[in-house]
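Incident log, entry 3
Record: TetR family transcriptional regulator (133 residues)
Problem: checksum mismatch between cached and fresh output.
Input:
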Amino acid sequence: MRAEASSRPVPQVTRATLYRHFKGKEELILSYLRQADHGIRGQVAAVRAQGLPAADTVRAVSRWITDGIRSPGFRGCAFLKAAAEYPDPAHPVHQAVLAHRQWFLETATELLGDAGGTPADAAGRHSSVPPPA
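Fresh output:
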């Protein structure tokens, strides 16, 4: 999230243009995190809508995540970077990270519970970065 992500200009877009649309770095990061969260939720919903057996749904979501991590443009998890840069739990950026983590933990736990096997809550915590207690 440091300069590499927030100040790296989007192709064909100058920093001045970016900051004309956002009051500052935090607002830009919040917008990015909201879009990333929306995209991830949409992708998981699309996989679930396929009506696959529960275990295949878990595999499909896991495959999608793995493919994203392996993609050439992947520069690390934006949520982990934002949490590291904004460690204050009261900060709006950190709050956005916590909301995404909580949703992912609940979703992973539900998907793993549907698939059976290991206790879903432990498996869900293992497969995600849970929010701090």
